[in-house]
Amino acid sequence: MAAEEEILRASGLTKEFKGFVAVKNVNLSVRRHTIHALIGPNGAGKTTCFNLLTHFLTPTSGRIHFNGRDITGSSPAAIARMGLARSFQISAVFPHLSVRENVRVALQRRLGNSFHFWRSEKILGDLDGRALELIEAVGLTAFAEAQAVDLPYGRKRALEIATTLALEPEMLLLDEPMAGLGQEDIKRIAQLIRTVAKNRTVLMVEHNMSVVADLSDTITVLARGEVLAEGPYATVSKNPLVVEAYVGTGHG
Predict the structure, then answer these.
(1) What are phi and psi of 87, to 5 degrees?
(2) For the segment 93-132, what is each residue's pLDDT rounded down to a tens digit?
(3) For tag attachment on the chain, is the N or C end more exposed, with fewer CB atoms within 10 Å?
(4) Into how many domains does the chain fold?
(5) Distance CA 54, CA 154 (A)
(6) What is the pTM (predicted TM-score) of this model?
(7) Are residues 252 and 181 in the same domain?
(8) Domain co-membership, 50 together with 157
(9) Taking the alpha carbons of 43, 49, 54, 58 in that order, is the dihedral positive or negative?
(10) In CATH, what number is assigned to the domain containing residue 182?
(11) Last residue of some domain: 150, 168, 186?
(12) Is beta strand 35-39 parallel, antiparallel or unpaired with respect to 218-223?
């Protein structure tokens, strides 16, 4: 793989919790402008991996490079400013603000200070234009003035993507974007991820195998904290080690 194709690389990533090794010597390489899925049975270490890549957890050992730069030890906020943004670890919206206000707050964060409530109406008005563009991009124009708390669950997911996109990330990490969604919402969010990925890189943890098969260019399979297999879905899904790892987990 040519170095310029690679946007994110983890080398020897390991995380121990009081003697329990949750992630063990994981090597991960994500190519620019691809959708890369991280899958595996429950307890495989997927979310721990995500937490390590964005430094919500500090690795016990190993290094992380983003855009050729060693980001190991950087704060989650600094990593987000570098262009590696994570969505869905919690519902990152303000329930009693409107959709438009939520996106506007996210745009204010991009300016380097979270809450410019004292800013002039002109500046806030300028942000509204961009906020409405993002709202349209995620299909929420009809909900722009609705309070976030009143949104259907799948629309909340779309709002979370909009607030993450407000940070203008080069790479988006999505933690189980389809969790809890019905079939119609899954189709909508899958299409949204495909659209978002046109000029960005996406790394996602996802349990829904039909979504993984449909969206992913490359899949990395984790089991017991180690990489079991990697490649396109057609290859990985036939790998006997992967089939064995999934037997009896309910996610086959």
Answers:
(1) -120, 160
(2) 889 999 999 998 888 876 665 555 555 666 667 788 899 9
(3) N
(4) 2
(5) 25
(6) 0.88
(7) yes
(8) no
(9) positive
(10) 3.40.50.300
(11) 168
(12) parallel
